[in-house]
Structure formats: C-alpha cells, structure tokens
C-alpha cells in the first residue's frame, strides 16, 4: 500500500451487497442496549461519550443511573459540576464529563435545548470530535456521516485490506473517507452501528470469528487468509512511571483531610488525599517539611501499603502515609476536614478509591 492518503475502493467490491448484508445482520443480532431504545440525540450523545475508552458492560449501569438523574439536557445543564463528577465516579477520563456538562449548557443557552443536527454547529460543542459527531448525526438524525473508531478501522482494514498504520492520527481521516464511500445513505444509522457491532462481537482484534461473519464474502483479508495480520498498528511508547506519597491525615476528632485538585489537567476538580512527588521528597523529608510548614506534629503509622494506577499515558505508584495530628492547631491548608461517612459524598478518582479500599475507610 502506498503512503498516499487516499484509498480507492476495489472495482469488484459490491457496496450495495455489503451494506445490505451488514444492516440485515445488525437488525437481526444487535444487542439490547439502553441507548438504542430510541433516537433521542441527547441519550445517544451521553452514551457515545461514556463509551469512549470504556467497555459496554461497564457503561450500561452508569448510563442508566446518569439518565435517571439527568433525563434531559435541562436537568444536566442545571446540575452542579461536582454532582456530575460524582455521578461519573468510577468511569474515569473525567474530562469527558466536564466537557459534556459544559457542552450541554451551551445547547440549552444557544440552541433552545435541542441538540443541533447540523454538522458545523455540532462540531462547535466542547468534547465532540469527528467520531462523536458522526455517531450522533447518523444514529440520531439519519445523516450519512462516518463514525470511525478503533472497531470500525479494524473491520474496514480487513474488509478492504487496508495496510495503513491505524496508530497514526492521519490514518483516521483516511478511514473516514473510506466509510463515507461505502456507507448506506438509506439507513446510515444501522450501517454505522452495524460496523461498530461487528467489530465488538465478530471482527475482534484477536481470533476474529470469520466463519460466522455476515460480510465474510466481501472481506479481502479473509479471502487472502491474512485477517490476523490486520490492522497494522505500531505499538505505543512505553508508559512512564511516577511515584507519589499520599498523605492521609486524621485529626483528633477522627476527620480526614481532603483537597480539590486544580481546575486544569489530569483528574481536574476531583478530590484527593494530598499527593507529593517522590522526585521531590523522601518520606522523612516530606514529613519534616510538612510539620515545619504547617506547625503541626504528626504521628505516622507504618505499613500502610501502596496502590498502583495505570492511566493511558502514565503509571502512578503511590505509597500511603497515614498520619495522626498529635499536637498543634489544625494546619491552615486549603481543603476540607470531613468524617468518614461524608467521604462518600465527594467525587474521587479511581486511584483515590483504590487508596481508600486499601485503608478500609470507604
């Protein structure tokens, strides 16, 4: 395959038969998922944001409780961001929730509460990239717009034997052009969902179930016996590791100290037991600095363990330091002192939930 960013559809590829076989299979075999109950663009939007980087089975209960709590764009727009983050707690990638919340407010303010069905208007909303835009326009508004994610690139790379590296960002545009060329204009909703479903259930990354694939006769890779070799995907760089101390402070009344993370960056606006980089302090230096900085005396418990959390780009290794205040005033540090029961009301990232589980405090 050349390096040019253009893929020509083979002359012998029967678009109409491919569309019909895929759509028929999808309508016969599609999973019963809560966001497929209707074509409400708001519900579809929420589901697509939740499904980014998250498995379907994980998303279902989150989607149901989220829609029960915020059944319309107005309900979500009126909600406090901390409440929204608490509803999202455990799903990860919290910028998705913040962007969705902000974009829904824009829909209420600028579009009379109606999710726009216009491509240019939809793209203006925060957090809506080309995939989400295509999914909403095709599924909710029956517009023939491609919605290309990893599943779709895998399916089409095999069907049309496309040997471009799907790990490269520019390749996605190529696949969007390919899907736009072969998709059904009569039923773009079923076509796009059919490609996604096929990638999820049949055309899997490893051991694709080609013998029961509804589009097997259209698949160039199957015909050549090279389906296991596609798609081509270079490996991502190894994740870097970062080491931290989590300082879990308890005052004489049994309250825990938590603080809010910054408004920008990783895990923005979520709550945590304070983290300190081990690149700056060892434990002894950290405690000395803290006691001097805030005029307190800490009694440190030993053997508090460690938690590890893997993000998409970095691995955190956190040593837990539990420290009781034994003398002096409560330190004048920005945050909240709360009892154990109230910890449940604040939105914490998964890494902090792991920490609480380790300490048996939640």
TrEMBL record:
Pfam family, one: HHH
Record-linked InterPro entries: A/G_AdeGlyc_MutY, DNA_glycosylase, Endonuclease3_FeS-loop_motif, HhH-GPD_domain, HhH_base_excis_C, HhH_motif, MIG/MutY, MutY_C
Signal sequence, renumbered to the chain: none
Domain (HhH-GPD) ranges: 50-201
SUPFAM superfamilies, alphabetized: DNA-glycosylase, Nudix
Cofactor(s) the record lists: [4Fe-4S] cluster
Catalytic activity: Hydrolyzes free adenine bases from 7,8-dihydro-8-oxoguanine:adenine mismatched double-stranded DNA, leaving an apurinic site
Keywords on record: 4Fe-4S, DNA damage, DNA repair, Glycosidase, Hydrolase, Iron, Iron-sulfur, Metal-binding
Cofactor details (free text): Binds 1 [4Fe-4S] cluster.
Keyword Transmembrane helix among record annotations: no
Enzyme class: hydrolase
Enzyme Commission number(s) of this protein: 3.2.2.31
Source organism superkingdom: Bacteria
Family to which the UniProt record says this protein belongs: Belongs to the Nth/MutY family.
Role noted for this protein: Adenine glycosylase active on G-A mispairs.
Record NCBIfam families: mutY
Protein name: Adenine DNA glycosylase
Source organism of the structure: Alkalibacillus silvisoli
